[in-house]
Amino acid sequence: MFEKEPFGELERLVTQKLPDVARGVAREELRSEVWLWLMAQIGSRSYEQMRVDSWDIDLMTFGMEVVLNRRLTAGSVKRFEFAEQQPQQAFAVEPGLEQFLKDTPLSGDATEEEIEFLKAMKFKGKQPSRSYYCRELQNLRDPLHFPPVAQPGESV
To answer: 18: helix, coil or strand?
Structure first.
């Protein structure tokens, strides 16, 4: 895509996201005459100039950061990136995992979250057995491996 239209998609991203961010702030704040004058005063700008905020784009990573005046609006920094990601692939269930899941005495009380974790495990050149998955499930549940995490304001 970039070879056919150098920076065409990037330009669309910039021209789409900057107005989206500005529009969001405008909807929230621009109805307030006091806010408009305050923004102009804090930024040492004229009333007409105060609608302008800053943005920066990194052409190496295609990351874009939009910075709104922190003193005047809540979510003042917005970051957007073009990033290469691996596609989500549907992997075949490992034979050992399939055997483990069919063995109800071993896997009968496994939660969906635990099963999804076991399914996500990938092995290059190896095929774990049913007993491997049984042990892995035990490891997931062992409090020695995963001690409780203290919540804010709480001690463990």
So the answer is: helix
Classify residue 2: in a domain, yes or no: no
- How many helices (H) and strands (E) are present in the chain, helices listed first? 6, 3
> Is residue 74 located within the same domain as residue 104?
no
Longest dimension (CA), the chain: 74
Task: Please count the structural domains in the chain.
Answer: 2
pLDDT in tens, 79-120: 777 666 666 656 678 899 999 999 999 898 999 999 999 998
Structural domain containing residue 117: 95-141
Is the same domain home to 76 and 12?
yes
Beta carbons of 101 and 107 less than 8 angstroms apart: yes
- Chain segment 64-87, per-residue pLDDT in tens: 777 766 666 666 677 777 666 666
